[in-house]
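for the recovery benchmark. tokens below, seq after
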């Protein structure tokens, strides 16, 4: 067994590998980029025995440091590491990296370069699997890439079709096309995203299964000819072809279907002499239940999967330990008949992203971060960490296990409810809504579920009077609570006798709230909004307060509300159930800032790269017309016109890197357009 390994990755997967290596007595070496070191040592750096900086992006190619094989191999050699664990993503499925590691006299903790190449391109992999007797989806997997030819192939296959970057993964470079008129634009987008993410813009075309389920089988092989499966995972709950919640085993799975799928998966692994952890992904027709003739090979991931913890939960096997043992030359630690499936597991991916804005990635400092105690948490961040624009915005994987599916799902929801994140927007409420979704709870799931019910799952953020009153009471009731930089306000509400009263100012999503609070006994409070538009009034009683733990329980207009509060640098976050409400404590001495451009501009919602621009000054546009494609965190996001109008200015060009808040395009004011129309003049 190895005495020291280097982890060629970052974030939660690096922390995950370090934890198992430490348990096995293996020393670890972390690597970190300049971006990861900018705000202090990252969590994976803190956990490792040693850490080596690998610098900035490559000056010539612009490639990410974690993709620079030479820097990583040099770090391994300099620290005396014997092997390199790639984690997932980055170089984990790069055969040239595997060969370079071997050439340097190191061990790659994963499959051979030959096996990775065999499964690296979707078209070649499908041909190989078809030859091995594994069922594959009908489609075009050839070399010809002319748009006209691919459009003809799509017509032959029959719409709807799925365009997929042949070197893709994680939903990148993938487009569903329902109408032939949309094919050209979808093809262009898939090719562009494939080139940006994988350096390969070639695609394949497949028949789109109308009621698809995504079920995958965890396989493991060694260098002694052995291969086993560790049962299946259902990853059907997806949005934009990216997994959201995974589970094991798959709901509705029959023994006949399981035997057929797992046998096909092991056959696939043996066909390429596979060694290490891998996943065979199948697309399944769920329209008439799970049947042995209703599944087809999609692709093989020749690495550890993001969702591997759910398999660990239901088998009791540490997959990272198996990786290390197999790479060290040992045989598989167990035979197929020894591997048991027990209970049910779920994994939810908690991201810094704005579900209400199309799941746009978000950035920010995690000013407050707290996880449920009764759940397994895999994370690469801690309180105070920064979610930057440079990497995947995952905060944590929240994992639950129960004796059955209903119990495991209930435990997942409880774990999410008791997870608290403040400082950036997250998808927590969206994940919680999925846990409560009637069809998902019943096990009736397919890859289109989220899209069909998106409005129910992602309602517009609503103003919460309950959260507003809780925040105001927390500020007013606790002793010596500073409300601003004004030293007098630090004294809190004061009354020599009679009624105590205080005005609390809070700001949420740019809207100012001023509330007048008063009490005679410190227990029963009246609260009145000073906003002319609102004028609302409430009564509240403090049932329980623990200011040291920042918890309170109130009787709000006859209803008991339990809340927890996080406070930092002029901000408060109130956690009630599945909801998080953040408030700023405004400085009343500051000048009132101008109003935002609103519907008169398209503003960058995040840092990113302008990949495509179809706008020029003077151009007439219609509401929802696509104008800019912005690439951020390796995904493309289409920004559309907020209203009908005329473009006054285009402030960016293709290839520009922009920061969030940048005014990309300005529209002429509606009044100007109307005046010009009335006078018969063309808008300037």
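predicted aa per position
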């Amino acid at each position: 067994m190895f005495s020291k390994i280097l982890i060629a990755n970052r974030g939660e997967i690096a922390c995950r590998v370090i934890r198992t290596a430490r348990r096995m007595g293996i020393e670890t070496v972390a690597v970190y980029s300049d971006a990861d070191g900018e705000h202090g040592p990252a969590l994976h750096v803190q956990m490792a025995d040693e850490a080596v900086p690998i610098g900035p992006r490559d000056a010539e190619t612009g490639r990410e440091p974690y993709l620079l094989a030479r820097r990583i191999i040099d770090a391994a050699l300099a620290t005396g590491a014997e092997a390199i664990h790639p984690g997932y993503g980055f170089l984990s499925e790069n055969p040239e990296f595997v060969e370079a590691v071997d050439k340097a006299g190191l061990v790659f903790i994963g499959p051979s370069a030959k096996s990775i190449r065999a499964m690296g391109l979707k078209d070649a992999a499908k041909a190989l699997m078809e030859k091995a007797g594994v069922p594959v989806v009908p489609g075009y997997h050839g070399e010809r890439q002319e748009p006209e030819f691919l459009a003809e192939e799509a017509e032959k296959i029959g719409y709807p079709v799925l365009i997929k970057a042949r070197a893709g993964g994680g939903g990148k470079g993938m487009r569903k096309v329902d109408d032939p008129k949309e094919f050209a634009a979808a093809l262009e987008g898939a090719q562009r995203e494939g080139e940006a993410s994988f350096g390969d813009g070639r695609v394949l075309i497949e028949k789109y299964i109308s009621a698809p389920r995504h079920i995958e089988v965890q396989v493991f092989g060694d260098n002694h000819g052995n291969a086993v499966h560790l049962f299946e995972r259902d990853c059907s709950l997806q949005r934009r072809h990216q997994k959201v919640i995974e589970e094991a085993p798959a709901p509705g799975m029959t023994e006949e279907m399981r035997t057929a799928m797992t046998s096909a998966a092991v056959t696939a692994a043996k066909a390429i002499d596979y060694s290490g952890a891998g996943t065979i992904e199948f697309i399944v027709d769920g329209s008439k239940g799970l049947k042995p003739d209703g599944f087809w090979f999609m692709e093989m991931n020749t690495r550890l999967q993001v969702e591997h913890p759910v398999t660990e939960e239901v088998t009791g096997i540490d997959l990272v330990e198996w990786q290390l043992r197999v790479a060290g030359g040992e045989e598989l630690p167990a035979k197929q008949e020894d591997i048991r499936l027990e209970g049910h597991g779920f994994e939810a991916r908690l991201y810094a992203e704005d579900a209400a804005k199309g799941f746009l990635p978000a950035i920010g400092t995690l000013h407050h971060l707290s996880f449920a105690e009764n759940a397994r948490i895999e994370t690469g961040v801690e309180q105070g960490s920064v979610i930057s624009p440079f990497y995947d915005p995952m905060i944590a994987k929240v994992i639950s296990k129960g004796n059955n599916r209903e119990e495991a799902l209930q435990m997942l929801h409880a774990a999410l409810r008791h997870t608290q994140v403040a400082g950036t927007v997250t998808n927590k409420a969206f994940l919680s809504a999925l846990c409560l979704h009637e069809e998902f709870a019943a096990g009736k799931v397919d890859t289109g579920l989220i899209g069909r019910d998106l409005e129910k799952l992602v309602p517009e953020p609503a103003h919460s009077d309950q959260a507003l009153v809780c925040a105001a009471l927390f500020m007013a009731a606790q002793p010596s609570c500073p409300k601003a930089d004004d030293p007098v306000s630090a004294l809190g509400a004061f009354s020599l006798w009679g009624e105590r009263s205080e005005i609390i100012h809070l700001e949420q999503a740019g809207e100012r709230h001023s509330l007048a609070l008063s009490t005679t006994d410190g227990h029963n409070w009246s609260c009145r909004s000073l906003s002319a538009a609102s004028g609302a009034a409430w009564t509240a009683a403090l049932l329980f307060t623990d200011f040291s733990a920042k918890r309170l329980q109130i009787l709000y207009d006859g209803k008991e509300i339990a809340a927890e509060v996080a406070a930092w640098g002029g901000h408060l976050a109130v956690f009630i159930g599945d909801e998080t409400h953040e408030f700023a404590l405004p400085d009343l001495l500051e000048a009132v800032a101008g109003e935002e451009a609103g519907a008169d501009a398209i503003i960058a919602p995040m840092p990113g790269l302008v990949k495509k621009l179809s706008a020029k000054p003077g151009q007439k546009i219609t509401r929802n017309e696509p104008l800019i494609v912005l690439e951020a965190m390796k995904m493309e996001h289409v920004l559309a016109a907020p209203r009908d109008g005329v473009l006054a200015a285009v402030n960016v060009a293709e290839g520009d890197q922009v920061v969030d808040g940048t005014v990309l395009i300005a529209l002429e004011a509606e009044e100007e357009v109307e005046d010009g129309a009335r006078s018969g003049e063309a808008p300037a």
